[in-house]
Amino acid sequence: MSFTMLYFLFIFASYNFSSSSASTLNYGDALEKSILFFEGQRSGKLPVDQRLTWRGDSGLSDGSSYNVDLSGGYYDAGDNVKFGLPMAFTTTMLAWSIIEFGEDMKGQIDNARNALRWSTDYLLKAATATPGALYVQVADPNMDHRCWERPEDMDTPRNVYRLTSQSPGSDVAAETAAALAASSIVFTDSDPAYSAKLLQAAVNVFDFADKHRGSYSDSLGSVVCPFYCSYSGYNSNGNTLGAEDDDYSFSWDDKRAGAKVLISKGFLQQKNEGLQMYKAHADNYICSLVPGTSSFQAQYTPGGLLYKQSESNLQYVTSTSFLLLTYAKYLTSFGGSTTCGASTVTAANLVSLARRQVDYILGQNPAKISYMVGFGDRYPLHIHHRGSSLPSIHTYADRISCSSGFSYLYSSSPNPNVLVGAVVGGPDHNDGFSDDRNNYQQSEPATYINAPLVGALAFFSATK
Fold first, then answer.
1. Domain 1-13+52-226 part of CATH 1.50.10.10
2. What is its EC number (predicted)?
């Protein structure tokens, strides 16, 4: 489900619900580290101000097989593939985080913009390199996953995959348009020429998504499935955005809940009755998360963590926390509350619920472990991440081959390179966590886990 309506709007535009007591957590430090993480995921020629210095240049010839420059961008998680759908979602969420909570980022705002620009520079290339085409992936994941090697050593095929009128992908194309459009707002004041370039590319890519409809999973098959299949498909009726449906998760695959929360701002701000149904369905989503209400249907662990699935569960926790805080901001700014049957849920209630989730991630949980690498006294040491788990190219210059790298995957030693700020997949439904490099479901970080958390941490760093 694409961010179709988000695109338009961006362009035109503890279950105790008493107030949370002051937290002892340093949200400002966590915010800085959550942004720093993205430097560890960089592909391409690294800048002179690169702070995670154990990384080196990689993927410099990406796109050359098609005579285009597709260097740059982000590796999505612990592998060396550049997947377009999660990268576009990551970009959208970084931009939205800055739009909503940029004023709270204080000294981190430039780092946040830099993290965003690293992605938008790549998406601009992907969108403009060839007329009538959108490049959506670099590298065959089936081949990449047969190796355990540093991005600086990659020798697996760097195949390039693109969408055309004959091979459409409305889902990833519209999400790319949303990412570019949202980012254009971020750079409106700091770099108006760049902002205009992003906006024009967004318009063109959205036009491509609308004119050539279809799911990119159907067009690209096994190179995107089962890795980042478009399971939810795409919304062929952009006029309603599925407003008649209630949906209870928000992720790189399904963005309807996020779109409805954003559209609700228009209803609250302008009292536009035509948008009221979006507010009603946004309320349904919010109510489903709140224990004790008649609409409650979410699952929480015994320790209080929102639980959606066994693999990379924290992606749903960070995205949900972001929506809770964004909706709370809209309710506070424009007046209003959420009615859940006979219960009234206020903005303060939503902030309290989101704080519990964020605090859990940062270490206030039964295991007493921070799920953000480098934050707190105890955090995962064996994360499922090639670059982090192998010796840095700066300390071991000899090439480590595809098969030789597996000895590091299976090693019991801690990762030699600390991927500061990385948030891993997280614990199971009983709050159990295995700090095991082979348990990728729990120990692998991803850009789309961190991106929504940037906004949430900015909010709490300013309201502690």
1. yes
2. 3.2.1.4
* Residue among 444, 382, 434, 388 at smallest CA distance from 410: 382
Helix (H, G, I), strand (E, B) or coil at 328: helix
Q: Where are the beta strands (DSSP E) in 106-182?
A: 134-138, 160-163
User: Which residues fall within 8 angstroms of residue 265, CB to CB, at 6 or more apart?
Assistant: 330, 334
Cα separations (Å) of 408 from 110, 128, 150, 392?
A: 35, 39, 11, 12
Catalytic residue annotation:
384, 435, 444
Angle at alpha carbon of residue 426, lines to 38 and 429, rounded to 5°: 155
Taking the C-alpha atoms of residue 339 and residue 287, their distance in angstroms, rounded to an integer, is: 8
What are the structural domain ranges in the chain? Answer: 1-13+52-226, 263-383+419-464
Q: Residue 52 carries which DSSP code? A: -
* Whether the domain at 1-13+52-226 and the domain at 263-383+419-464 fall into the same CATH topology: yes
Contact 419, 52 (CB under 8 A): yes
* Percentage above 90 pLDDT, the chain: 84
pLDDT, tens only, 258-281: 999 999 998 888 877 788 899 999
Say whether 329 sits in a helix, a strand or coil. Answer: helix
Distance separating alpha carbons of residues 34 and 383, to the nearest angstrom? 16
Q: Which residues of the chain have pLDDT under 50?
A: 1-21, 238-240
Q: What CATH number is given for 263-383+419-464 in this structure?
A: 1.50.10.10
Is the CB of residue 132 less than 8 Å from the CB of residue 163?
no
Return d(Cα 318, Cα 3) in angstroms, integer.
18
Summarised one tens digit per residue, pLDDT across range 172-214 is 999 999 999 999 999 999 999 999 999 999 999 999 999 999 9
- Which two three-digit tokens encode residue 240? 């309603």
Residue 336: which residues within 8 A CB-CB, separation 6 or more?
268, 330
Q: Which residues pair with 372 in a beta bridge?
A: 423
Rounded Cα distance between 90 and 294, Å, is 33
Q: What angle do CA 373, 377, 381 make, to 5 degrees?
A: 40
H or E element that contains 299: strand 299-300
C-alpha–C-alpha distance, residues 36 and 456, integer Å: 16
pLDDT tens digits, one per residue of 123-138: 999 999 999 999 999 9
Please, are residues 4 and 235 in contact by the beta-carbon 8 Å criterion? yes
Residues 6+ apart with CB under 8 A from 347: 327, 328, 329, 331, 332, 337
What is the spatial distance between Cα 272 and Cα 269, in angstroms, rounded to a whole number? Answer: 8
